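User
Here is a favour to ask of a fellow structure person. I am asking you to supply a protein in sequence and structure-token form. Please set it down just below, with no commentary around it:

Assistant
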Amino acid sequence: MSAAESAQPSVLNTPPSQRAVQQIQISEKKRKKMLLQKLINGFLFIYFLLLSLQIPLLNGQIILPTEFFPKFLVDLVSKYIQENNDYLMSEKPHFRVGLAWVELLLQWPLAIASVYGFLKKRSWVKKTCLAYGVSASTSLVAILSELIGSGKGSPKLVSVFYGPFMVFTILCILNGLDTTSLLSVNLTARPPMAARNKRV
């Protein structure tokens, strides 16, 4: 046996049936990962779609005069404050007003961009997810620290309203850090580079 033949990768010595099983296992793992990614993308798409409406129409009432909003939206926020004793929305401390400006000027555009990115399967949506997740989680840490530390926030307010937002922001960060799944799906939908060059 020549030196070249002895240097062949050991995978070539694997029986064809075993290589077929390995390929099936790899394909199955990729399929499950892509299915999980699609499920996460679906949840985040709905989340960002609702968020793109909530920030300007509801959270915007913290910093903008109520005259700018329809009466039913003002009544909706008032009812929410009364039922859940969200004193941060009613008393509007300075730090909460500052966070509301961050939501309107930074997180809202990121939410709109993410909706478009998920809808069109753009690879850069990972970056908008990560940017939003970092910004929103930082804001929520300050809000939750105030609600829990002051003792004025009810358990319902923390666990039902603000808590789930923290879960979604962490999901956005994790989704943004995984830069492989959506990119591979996006690239497979495009024609090969050689084919594009030939058309040009």
